[in-house]
Amino acid sequence: MTTTIAALPDHNRTTDPLWQRLFHRYSHVITPLRYAGWVTDVETAGGGEFFVRADLRDGTELIIASEHSLPADAAEVNGWTAVRRDVQDPSKHTVLYDSTPNGPQRHHRNSLIPLLARIDGLDVPRRAPRLIVSATHTAPYGASHNQTAGIEGAATAIARFSEWSQRLTDHEGYRRVWQRPQADGYPLALFESAGHITTVRVTRSDD
Questions:
Q1: Who's near 151: CB < 8 A, 6+ residues apart?
Q2: What is the C-alpha to C-alpha distance for residues 183 and 34, in angstroms, rounded to an integer?
Q3: What is the pLDDT of residues 145-189, one digit of tens each?
Q4: Is the pTM of this model over 0.85?
Q5: What domain of life does the native source organism fall in (predicted)?
Q6: What structural domains and CATH numbers belong to the chain?
């Protein structure tokens, strides 16, 4: 099977409890970037500050933060910044996105999909396949209907999968009964509520 998600970072900090905690808290940012094909990490900048970093594999890297550093609690993010910079010379950089309170994209606030859509639009080598998020809702009496998003970049689609899944569990009373492991392909999850079954899946647009 073709690998669909980038490998985890290869360094000795992956066993550090703080790194593990931050990597988990920002998994909603990190996982879409990994499905886009980029090794993604939590980096520290000294003084207790940290940010998300993705290696774009062309001599540049993507740095995601908030107004300054990312807060330890991801729920406190009040907007995102994304900068693409040269790995060897960080002074060479381009601000891609800024939805913090004074940024040009501030109307998006802490929404992830506009940020990742901007990132998916970057000119990068070896781009990941474009994806489709879809859902099938089946009632106990057999009626069913389908919901499909358009064709999107990999990072945007994975974030949309998470958003749809969270809406089911947080707002529509569903519980997640099964989800495909990351190593086995693109996300697929099954939800149930009082006999109603919803399947949310991500597929390649050319499947």
A1: 130, 131, 132, 205
A2: 12
A3: 999 999 999 999 999 999 999 999 999 999 999 999 998 999 999
A4: yes
A5: Bacteria
A6: 12-120 (no CATH), 131-204 (3.30.450)
